[in-house]
Specification:
Blueprint (H helix, E strand, L loop, with lengths): L3 H11 L4 H8 L3 H8 L7 H11 L3 H4 L7 H16 L7
Length: 92
């Protein structure tokens, strides 16, 4: 499972920001940022969007969710199609 607090902290630290600097730049409260990063609670979607917009990244990137590449998606689709076509269908 994704550790959201660590993912949020990583994004902040990658940009060399302290919690106070991030709070000042975004208008969020430093205490809220600290709370989220310590995994004491989760930000609501509005705060996530605000942070993702500030960092200029997707929501998936913000929370540390890795998305499959296009190649992986095509590979999975092809695999699923092969499985479907190899099944025996009995019509009664």
């Amino acid at each position: 499972m994704i550790n959201y607090g660590e993912a949020l902290k990583l994004q902040r630290e990658l940009r060399g920001l302290s919690q106070s600097a991030l709070a000042k730049a975004t208008g969020l409260k430093q205490q809220m940022i600290s709370w989220w990063e310590a995994n004491n609670g989760l930000p609501n979607i509005d705060f996530c969007v605000q942070l993702a917009n500030f960092y200029e990244i997707s929501l998936d990137e913000l929370i540390g969710r890795e998305l499959p590449t296009e190649r992986d998606r095509v590979k999975n689709i092809s695999k699923n199609q092969t499985t479907i076509f190899n099944q025996t269908i009995t019509i009664k």
